[in-house]
Design brief:
It is built from 11 helices and 13 strands. With 316 residues, the chain is α+β, with helices and mostly antiparallel strands.
């Protein structure tokens, strides 16, 4: 048996055992204790954290399971991993950012020449492009660690009403459009609120005690449930159809007519009216809102506010 194969077998054995003696390895692999010591030194040089305990009951302990046993990837699997890494390239802040770069480099260095050519082509011609945000998220890793530990946080948060202190229990974190968001249970009013992670100025306290709440997946699914349903009816030009098909929250509601025009007739949550008013105001004559009246009033207000900024100029 080759030395490389023997090292892999011993690595798998000690990673599983955690605590062992040289004699155990010698008996298991039918080799001498002196050879075992040489192999353990080789594994230690490769980065396996092994601690030797002296004395009658001594032996070896793997300090942590920080190093995984060897994993064999096919060329296509390795390319697929780099393809996944490409989707993260344009995020300014990422948890484990240094580790992602390290994994990428280790994997790239281990590839054959032809596989490296594929990776180079992939990175040159394919991108999950998203403009990099200028805002930083310095507490991203701290928030993620609190979420993993299911901790409660006391945070200083910068909202449109000013800086305030909030006591929350995060239920998860997700990325959207280059920004990180944290839905969390507000422990004072028992409501789940959505926080921008870059607007968390500081974490004042980190409490291990927690309340039972839903997880992120459950919250994302419930976020689409209508709390205050209201009918939305909009007549669309051809351009209006094209634009609304690019909006994730409206795409499925667009009905196309044979001449290329269309309409939207669906139920939305009343809380979405402000967001939709900005969208339909931008579309102008290409999206004529018929219902609800509250949305029409918001559109009128947008127009009135803009006219106030740009009043009609006199000819004199």
């Amino acid at each position: 048996m080759s030395k490389a194969k023997r090292l892999i077998d011993i690595l798998l054995f000690v990673s599983d055992k955690k605590k062992f003696t040289a004699q155990e390895i010698a008996d298991t692999f039918n080799i001498s204790v002196r050879t075992v010591h040489r192999y353990l030194l080789d594994l230690s040089d490769m980065g396996l954290p092994i601690y030797a305990e002296q004395g009658r009951n001594g032996g070896y302990t793997v300090l942590s399971n920080a190093i995984l046993p060897p994993i064999l990837f096919t060329e296509e699997e390795a390319v697929a991993i780099f393809f996944a890494f490409q989707s993260l390239h344009y995020y300014r802040d990422l948890p484990f950012n240094a580790e992602i770069k390290s994994v990428s480099q280790k994997l790239y260095d281990s590839l054959q020449k032809e596989a490296k050519k594929k990776i180079d082509s992939l990175q040159s011609y394919i991108a999950f492009w998203n403009p990099k945000r200028t805002v930083t998220t310095p507490l991203l890793t701290d928030v993620l660690e609190a979420i993993i530990n299911q901790s409660q946080l006391q945070i200083q948060y910068d909202s449109k009403s000013g800086i305030s202190t909030k006591h929350v229990q995060p239920i998860g974190m997700y990325a959207h459009d280059g920004l990180w968001y944290m839905p969390a249970l507000h422990l004072q009013n028992k409501k789940i609120l959505l926080f921008r992670v870059d607007r968390i100025l500081s974490i004042l306290a980190n409490d291990k005690s927690k309340e039972t709440t839903i997880n992120l997946q459950q919250w994302l699914e419930s976020a689409f449930e209508l709390q205050q349903p209201i009918r939305l009816y909009v007549e669309l030009s051809r351009e209006g159809v094209r634009q609304c098909l690019s909006e994730p929250n409206l795409e499925k509601a667009v009905v196309r007519h044979s001449d290329g025009t269309g309409h939207i007739d669906t139920m939305i949550d009343k809380g979405e009216l402000t967001f939709n008013s900005s969208l339909f105001y931008r579309l102008g004559q290409h999206a004529i809102v018929k219902e609800p009246q509250e949305l029409i009033q918001l559109l009128r207000k947008h127009a009135h506010d803009l006219l106030a900024i740009y009043p009609k100029q006199s000819n004199s």
